Amino acid sequence: MSFITDLIQEKAVDVLGGISLPDNLKEQVLGGVSDSIFGSIKETAGKEGGIDQLIELFTGRQSAASSPVTDLAGKLFSTDIAKKLGLSPGIISAVVPMIPKVIEKFTSSKGIDVNDLISEVTKSGVADKLKDAAGSLLGGFFK
Fold it and tell me: Treating both helix axes as pointing N-terminal to C-terminal, what angle do 99-107 and 26-45 enclose, rounded to 10 degrees?
């Protein structure tokens, strides 16, 4: 697992620790939350205007609760991931509202290097565009 996904999962453990989950599903749910957040960041980076959405989220100009990145992560979890894991509607309804809190903790983490994030989410030309935009707007914010 990469540094970015490890960090997302660490924040998921912090936030989701208070939710009562069956022992046999805890790791799967934590992994599913991490996958949905990482998938949302990756998908957003590839969309038109997505780079701006990520920058707004990571600079705090937009809260995690109101970010389209967060909305997409919730949708990915509740449709794709929850279905694959066979999660009950009760578990889904307990976990999805916690995703904005996980993203908030992740985006405010110290030590996130925007270059690491970029290399994780995409290997296409979008990476250079995101790196240039983030570098010019943020300077050393993520270091």
Answer: 60
Between 65 and 107, the higher pLDDT residue = 65
**Distance between CA atoms of 122 and 88, rounded to whole angstroms?**
32
- Give the pLDDT confidence of 34-48 residue by residue, as tens digits: 999 989 998 998 889
Instruction: Classify 19 as helix, strand or coil.
Output: coil
CA dist., res. 143 & res. 137, Å (int)? 14
Question: Would 74 be classed as within a structural domain?
Answer: yes
Q: What is the DSSP letter of 2?
A: -
At residue 41, what are phi and psi to the nearest 5 degrees?
-65, -45
Residue 51 has pLDDT above 90, yes or no: no
Number of structural domains found in the chain: 1
